[in-house]
Amino acid sequence: MTDTPAPASESASESATEPVSVPAPVVLPEPTTARPVPGQLTFQAPRRGKPPRHLADFTPAERKEAVESLGHKGYRAKQLSAHYFERLEDDPEQMTDLPKAVRSELVAGLLPTLLTPIVQRVADDGQTMKYAWRLHDGAIVESVLMRYPKRVTICISSQAGCGMNCPFCATGQAGLTRNMSAGEIVEQVVWAARALRRGELAGGGDDDHEAPLRVSNVVFMGMGEALANYKASVGAIRRLTDPAPDGLGMSARGITMSTVGLVPGIDKLTAEGIPVTLALSLHAPDDELRNELVPINTRWSVDEALDAAYRYFEATGRRVSIEYALIRDINDQGWRADLLGEKLNRRGRGWVHVNPIPLNPTPGSKWTASRPGVEQNFVERLRAHGIPTTIRDTRGQDIDGACGQLAASTA
Ligand code: SAH
To answer: What pTM value is reported for the model?
Structure first.
């Protein structure tokens, strides 16, 4: 069944109350998902073996239970959390405040290896790094780490593949393999934080600063539609934002949740009351074109998606980002900029900004980026409507690490 939204309870991380089974059984990867047919949407992730359970799958209360289920005192959960979230430590040898036997059992039971790095590629003079990870069942996902003058951003994956089938996106063309667990999502950030600590990312022009580099921004713009894997994605956001030692203590403002416009998911996120930034991948202001570019539009129209984004702004006070990949002669006409400006202004002022990005090339796609003059005109037309508009920086194009290019080839 490919056509109904998966209930949140079916997400991959739902293992809170289950007994521990370590090591996890090795599940061989299934044959590659067939290429999706045009317009087809896949909400329900194929069932594969669950990833081993991990500390980062759990709330602090659940961690206590998990530790007790391993036969240890509940307060050990806090100690283990401090090692993992505060010190980024998963080596039992370093956990000297814990008795040796306790350490190895807790690490074996709650800090299993979820990500195995298989490829690491560098671009932009060492300031951009793309990682490909193998998950426990052989599925492959990618993350991209980018250093800027005053921030470090990691672009993370929330699903292996994606079921949203946007024809201009390499991930969408590969289909959905499976949902990722909260632990697998968080581990991408923890790995990046460790890499930064080891000084593995080249300077961003701010080498004079003394403090160790930290991951300041996390964007859910890698593989997958995070709101289609709601429970694990929001669980991951909680782990990232909970203050140490319960979580990584990041600012919610530094986190961006990007979506094709799953309206019920946006509304649910609104109700969570976590002030992350919402990015809506719009790409067209009219239903006729958006039905083709972002097939979810056949379920929730441009107006419905914009209304949900506006409700998000109203509830959180966070300015929403509209993502718009400029595709030559497809969605880059001046009248579409005007229509977009009108639709945004109809809902209010100061609630939104637009982030056009020149389309990144993907294999087999007939489309290409807009000409620079056309791009500039599009931006100016939007600004003339009073809409703050900035061209999105694109990184890692030469390593297929840019937006829409993540397809998990191991080349
Ligand atoms: N599923 C989410 C997040 C993943 S994609 C979403 O769609 O928002 C992150 C962003 O990259 C989205 O705005 C997406 O539309 C955009 N994108 C996809 N393919 C692209 C391409 N070839 N060039 C530029 N941007 C692209």
So the answer is: 0.89
